[in-house]
Every structure is written in C-alpha cells, then in structure tokens.
Specification:
It contains 24 helices and 10 strands. With about 600 residues, the protein is of the alpha/beta class. It folds into 3 domains: about 180 residues, ABC transporter transmembrane region fold; about 120 residues; about 240 residues, P-loop containing nucleotide triphosphate hydrolases (Rossmann fold, 3-Layer(aba) Sandwich). The strands form 2 sheets. The protein has a 6-stranded mixed beta sheet with strand order 6-7-8-3-9-10, sandwiched between helices. Strand 7, helix 21 and strand 8 form a beta-alpha-beta unit. The N and C termini lie far apart (about 85 Å). Bound molecules: adenosine-5'-triphosphate (ATP). Adenosine-5'-triphosphate binds next to helix 15. It is a multi-pass membrane protein.
C-alpha cells in the first residue's frame, strides 16, 4: 500500500493486525470524516447556487437566498462537528492504542531470552518502547482522516462539477493531475534516501552519546578534539545528504507548489471558462461553481503531501515496533516439569552467538547439590557463557542442560528462577527505594526480611548512612558505587534464597574494603547451595570442590586445586601466573626533580 504522498507504508499487514483493538473506532472516525469532508463542499455549492439564483432572478428570490444560506451554515456546522468528533475519536483511540502496544511490548520483553538484552543497548529498547510508539501517533490520529479528506473532497467536488459540465471539469483536474505527477516524481527521488536519512541521524546521536559518555576517557587521553571531530563529521555528512536531497527535489517541489496553488487553479479555470463560454459550450453563469469549487480541490492533497514526512516516520516507527513484538520468545514447555533436586548437569553443550564461531564446544559439567564449582580460564575462553546458559540467557544449540534431571527447556521459567539466582557484575538497580530494589527478589518479603538480607550482604550500614535509609531512592538520594550496587544484588540473592547460585566473582569496581565485604557476603551466601563461580583470582577458589578449566569453549581440565596442580597442566600455569602477579608491585621511582625537592 502507498500513502497518498507516494511513500510505501512498510509492513501494512502487520500494522493492520496491530491496530486491531482500535480498528472499529478508526472505521467509525473515517465514516464521520467522510460525512464531514462531503459537508465541507456543500457551502461552496450553496454559494454557487446562490450566485446563480441572484444572477437569474435578482433580489426577488429572497426565499431561495435564505434556503441556500441556511444550507451553507448547516453544512459548515456539520463539517466542524464531524472534524471535532472524528479527531476526538482518533486521538482517544491513539491513547488507548499506545497503552495496549506498550503493554504488549512489555509482555514480550518479559518473555524474550535474557541474552537478547545483552546484545542491545537500553537506548535501542527505550527508543522502540517510548519514542516509536509516540511517533506512531501521526499514523493513528491523523493519517486516516487526512486520506479521507484527500480522497472524498476531490471526488465529490469533481462528481458535482462533472454533472454541470464535463469539459470544464477536465480543466479543474488539470492542475491536480500535473501536481500529483510532480510530487510523485519528487517523492520517488526522496524515498530511496530515507534509509540514508535514518542512518545519518543515528550517526549523529551515536557520536553525540559516545562523546558525552566517554568524555572522561577522551579527556584523559587528550583526544577531545578527535571525538568532537567524529560528531562534527557526522553532522557534516547529514548536511551533505540533506543538501543533496534538497538540490534534487527543489525544482519539482517548487513547480508542484505553483501548479497546486489556488491562484493557478483560478487562472486556469477562469481562462477555460472565458474560452468555453465564448464558444457557447457553457452558459457564463455555470462557470461560477467551477471557480468557487475548483479552488478547494487541491487543498486536501496539499495537506496530505505536507504530512508525508510525518507519515513516513510514523510508518518506519511502526516497523520497529512490529519487529520488537515479533522477537522470538524463550520457548516454554506446555507440560512443565519440576526438578527433583539442585543438581545441574551440562551434557555435550554447544553454543554459538553468531551461528558460526562456537563459544562453547561440547561442554560436560556436573554440579552436585551443595558443592562449589569454579570456572577458571583465560579471558574469552567461555566462562561467562557457561554461567549464563544456566539461568537460560540463551538455550544451547545442541546438547542439553538439566536441573534435577529435567531439561531446563521443560521447566517453567518461574520455577527455574526460583531455583537459580545469579549475581553478575553488571548490576541493574531500579529508580525506586532501596527496599523495593532488594524486595524485587521476593515481593512478599517483610521489612525485617529485607533488612536481614541487607545485613547478610554487608550493605545494611551503608544504607543507614543514606538520607532516608531504606526509603532512599536509587539515583535520587541513594547513589551507590559499583561494589555497593553488587552488595545490593547479593542482598537480593539472600532474599530469593535459591538452592543454586551462579556468580561472577567481583573484580572491577571494588576498592579493597568493599571487595573484602563482597567476598564475606558471597561466602555467607554460598553456604549450603550449589554454587557456580566465575573466578578471576585463583586464590579465592582454592577450596572449591571442583575447578573446571575452560579453554576455547571446552573443559580442558577438571579437579580440585591440589589435583590440578599435580597435573602440571593449564591450571598449574594459570596458578603460577597468578602467584607471580600477587608478588608484583609497581616500582615507583622518584623523578630527579622530586628527589631534589625531597633532599633539599
Ligand atoms: N554477546 C556476545 N555476542 C557475541 N559474542 C560473544 C558475546 N559474549 C561473548 N562472546 C564471545 O564468546 C566467547 C566467550 O566469551 P565469554 O564472555 O564467555 O568469555 P569469558 O571466559 O567469560 O571471558 P572474560 O573472563 O574476559 O569475561 C568470546 O570469544 C567472546 O568474544
């Protein structure tokens, strides 16, 4: 389907389905809009009739004058009423539509695999859920009524005019047809550039965000000019693109505006009326309706053309909304089973992020209830990927993971999350109170339970230092460091009290004190649970029941610390490196200048 501006509306079938909850209202609005559009022509017809009556009978035809006068006023009021009611219906329908679509999106996002989010920035998701739904407003609230006006007004007008005189009507159509042709040509030039337009806009916002977010590191390395240049280059490319589009369309756009202007219609119709009435093809008095109505034929089309950009943007936004709503959800079993115990077993698990390179290539691993298993290995070896398959961030491409003897795919996700909790380093805190942030793990938890969890996670004292204690709002009067945020997530895990815990050992954020607190909290959390830990410092997992060395997506070695050292393999090498790094301290030599100062 094409919109009246000549631009294809993408995915119109999907859009039609998306509009289902408000389709009835839109159809009613269009029917009312059609009545209103037809009524908008009546005052012109009445005035034309009036002119004909007055010219034929002079001032004597008072009754007819009043009759046409009332018809004109009545039609005008009807038009206003229809515009008001139809516009009201589409706008209320749009409010409801936005609510429904946002709810559907939220419901969908709740079912997509957790891994889907790691591949997308929160900005992209926010754009679809918030901005794109908002951009669809034009499509829902305006476009349908604009199309109704753009079709009904010219069709009814021309039907009326043809009933008076066919030859004159063709002259009325002339500017309309030429204008449509010119605009069509213009839009055909613009349309292929719309994708470039979106890319260029994306580049501008991307480089702006990059510049602002990375300002710290950019300044540290003295690269402000370089990052700023990338933003400037993006804006320059956008300007080049827009200039190119404008250059290629300026002539046809200007010509179309001249052709569709009411003055042009007036000149063409008056000239044609003079010639045809001179030749006796039409009585001079019959030219009046053409002059009056001919001027209004092009107006609704002009309105449609002017809103073509908003309509196209709305159509593109609807495509993104539809794509998000079509995102694959995590398959849920129709007959879910309940795991027998807290044993986790990975059997010949293969997994690839891109369908080509195998991040995991035949992993066999068994986590017995109540034991600790540590994953160690070089960066990029696949430790995090193994850990994230257990709470079903993704499903394996082949092989299977079982919990208590049941394939994870056969366990209801609520049941799985009751059994498995994870504490990763990229902790997400919500903009709500500290209590609610912790309570996320167990909405029914009492304040005493929340506090007990916070104490166990070694974050209680820090919370009490906040202006409103547990009622302080994250991001408002509760600002947490990375290590503190991780302890909040540990408090959540205490509250959830799952039999299985997957955790990423803290490294990046923590200062020594915070790190010690995190380690204490994690040790307490681990007691009595099946624990899988991604170890970054081997000293913390020496006592693990089982250490699995991951290498290029495979388990290269497995055993206790002592067993693996005795094997003198990869683990022994990693351990030797670890020991060396522990004894390494940066040697800080005073510069000659500072040495002089000190000695002075
Ligand atoms: N979201 C992703 N999309 C595509 N590839 C990924 C993704 N996450 C990880 N990878 C790739 O999968 C492989 C395993 O990564 P993984 O994060 O599991 O390693 P890791 O051992 O945890 O590394 P590190 O110790 O540095 O965290 C790497 O080659 C990595 O580049």
């Amino acid at each position: 389907m094409r919109d009246a501006g000549g631009l294809a509306i993408p995915g119109v079938g999907g859009l039609w389905r998306l509009l289902r909850p408000i389709r009835g209202r839109l159809i009613i609005a269009c029917v009312i809009g059609t009545i209103g559009a037809a009524a908008s022509i009546v005052p012109f017809i009445a005035v034309a009739q009036l002119a004909q009556v007055l010219l034929a009978s002079g001032a004597g035809a008072t009754a007819a004058v009043w009759q046409w006068g009332w018809i004109a006023v009545g039609a005008l009021l009807l038009r206003l009423l229809c515009v008001f009611v139809a516009g009201g219906i589409t706008h209320f329908a749009d409010t409801r539509f936005q609510l429904i679509v946002r709810r559907r999106m939220a419901a969908r996002l709740g079912k997509v695999p957790l891994g889907w989010f790691t591949a997308r920035t929160s900005g992209t998701v926010k754009k679809s859920v918030s901005d794109d739904v908002l951009h669809m407003h034009h499509l829902v609230a305006h476009t349908a009524l604009e199309i109704v006006d753009g079709v009904v007004v010219p069709v009814v007008t021309l039907a009326y005019l043809f009933s008076i005189n066919g030859a004159m009507s063709l002259f009325v159509m002339l500017p309309l047809l030429v204008g449509i042709g010119l605009y069509g040509a213009q839009l055909a030039k613009v349309r292929p550039r719309m994708a470039d337009y979106s890319t260029a806009m994306g580049e501008i916002s991307g480089t702006a965000v990059e510049f602002v977010q990375g300002i710290g590191v950019v300044k540290t390395f003295g690269q402000t000019g370089r990052a700023y240049r990338r933003f400037l280059d993006a804006t320059a490319r956008f300007m080049d693109l827009m200039s190119g589009v404008m250059r290629s369309t300026l002539r046809s756009a200007a010509l179309a505006e001249v052709v569709l202007a009411p003055l042009t219609s007036l000149v063409v119709i008056t000239a044609a009326g003079a010639v045809l009435s001179g030749a006796g093809w039409i009585p001079p008095v019959d030219v009046i309706p053409f002059v009056l109505l001919g001027l209004g034929v092009t107006a609704p089309l002009m309105a449609l053309f002017f809103s073509a950009t908003a309509t196209t943007q709305a159509a593109e936004a609807s495509e993104r909304v539809l794509a998000l709503l079509a995102t694959d959800t995590l398959p849920e079993s129709d007959a879910p089973r309940v795991p027998a115990d807290a044993t986790i077993a990975l059997e010949r698990v293969r997994f690839s992020y891109d369908g080509q390179y195998a991040a995991l290539d035949g992993i066999d691993l068994r986590l017995e209830p109540g034991t600790t298993t540590a994953l160690v290995g070089r960066s990029g070896s696949g430790k995090t990927t193994i850990a994230k398959l257990i709470p079903r961030f993704w499903d394996p491409d082949s092989g299977r993971i079982t919990l208590g003897g049941v394939d994870l795919r056969d366990i209801a996700s609520s049941e799985l999350h009751r059994h498995v909790t994870f504490v990763f380093q990229d902790v997400q805190l919500l903009s709500t109170s500290v209590t609610e942030n912790i309570r996320l793990a167990k909405p029914t938890a009492t304040s005493a339970e929340v506090e007990a969890a916070a104490r166990a996670a070694q974050i209680h004292d820090r919370i009490l230092e906040l202006p409103r204690g547990y009622d302080s709002v994250v991001g408002d009067d509760a600002l947490f460091s990375g290590g503190e945020a991780q302890r909040i997530s540990i408090a959540r895990a205490f509250l959830a009290d799952p039999p299985i815990l997957v955790l990423d050992e803290a490294t990046a954020f923590a200062d020594p004190e915070s790190e010690a607190l995190i380690q204490d909290a994690l040790s307490a959390l681990a007691i009595g649970r099946t624990l899988l830990v991604i170890a970054h410092r081997l000293s913390t997992i020496q006592g693990a029941d089982q250490i699995a060395v991951v290498d290029r997506g495979c388990i290269a070695e497995r055993g206790t610390h002592d067993e693996l050292l005795a094997r003198a393999g990869t683990y022994a090498t990693l351990w030797a490196n670890h020991e060396r790094s522990r004894s390494w301290h940066p040697e800080i030599r005073p510069s000659a200048e500072s040495a002089r100062k000190v000695n002075r």
